[in-house]
Amino acid sequence: MTKDTRIQALGQLGKWMLNLDETSLHTIQRAHYKNPWYTEEYILKQFQSLGQQLTDEKLNQWLANYPDIESSKIVGLVLAGNLPLVGFHDILAVLMSGFVAQIKVSSDDAGLTPMVLDRLAQVEPLFAYKIDLVDKLANYDLIIATGSNNSARYFEYYFSSKPHIIRKNRNSVAILTGKESEEDLKKVGYDIFDYFGLGCRSVSKIFIPSGYPVSTFFEAIEHFNQSKAHFKYNNNYDYNKSIYLINGEKHFDNGFLLLKEDKNIASPLAVVFYEEYDNIKDVVNTINNCRERIQCVVTDGSFDLEVPVFPLGSSQCPALDDYADGVNTLDFLFANQ
C-alpha cells in the first residue's frame, strides 16, 4: 500500500465513525454489558473524537514529513483498556507507518477494537495483511506497551531486547486562576468526569488560588451529578467518602465528587485533589518537577510549562500529533524501519 492508499482508507474509516451503521451501534450497546465502564455515551463520544481526526486533510498534515515506506517488520502492541479504543492511536501510527501491527487487546476492550479493525479491512482489504490480533505476542521487531506502573516494570524487563515504548500511569491537572467564568469551570468538569476520570488525560488535581471559594467550583460542575447514577462510579464515591470520614480527613463533598487537599497528583476515583497557591511560579515549578507523571495540563492561563497544555474542557480531545507521554510514536517507528 502507498501512503495515499492508507490515508484514503483511514479517511473513510473516520466517516464511518461519525455515522455508524445499525450493526455497529448494536455492538456498542452490547459492549456496555461486557464492560460497565464503557457506557454507550462515552463509546460514541470516543468514536466522534476519533472520527473528527481521521480526515484526509489532517492525516496528510500529520504524515507530511515522513516517507512513503512499506515494512515487513512487526510491531507488537499491548493495549490498555481503561477507555474505549484507548489504544487506537498506537494502531493508527503503526499502520500509517507501513508496519505490521500485532495487537494484544485488553480483556476490557469489549470487542470494540476488533470491530473497528474489521471495518478498516472492509474499506481497504490490504489492511487485513497488516493486522494480526493475538492472545500472546511473538516474533515481533518493536514493542509499544501500555500498562500500570507495576506492569510497566515488567514490560521494561521483558521487552528490553527490542526497541520499545513503555507507557506508565499518568494523570492530568488543571490550573485555575480564579478569573474563570461559570462556563469555564463547567468545561473543567468535562476534563474531570469524561470517561469517569479513568483516563491519563483525566484531571485528577486542580491548583487553585489561596482562599478560592470551593462552592463556586461545585456550583459550576453540578451538571455532572449524573455520574453518581453509574453504580461502579458511585461505589468508588461511597468508599472514598467513608474512608475520609472514618479517618477524620478534611474534604469537601458535593454529593458526587470529593475534593481533598493533597500534594499528590493521582487521586482515587470520584476524588479530585486540590492544592492552593499564592505564587503561580510555585505551581509551574511543581508541575515541571512532576512532568514524568503528568500527561497534560488544562488551563486558560499562559505559563512556562514543560508538559502539553490544553484549553479548559479539551483534555480528552487530542489531535493526531498530541502523543501520549510526549513521545512521538511516528519518529520512533520511522527510526526503526
From TrEMBL:
GO terms for molecular function: acyl-CoA dehydrogenase activity. It holds the Pfam family LuxC. The keyword NADP applies. One of its GO terms (biological process) is bioluminescence. Keywords: NADP. This is Acyl-CoA reductase.
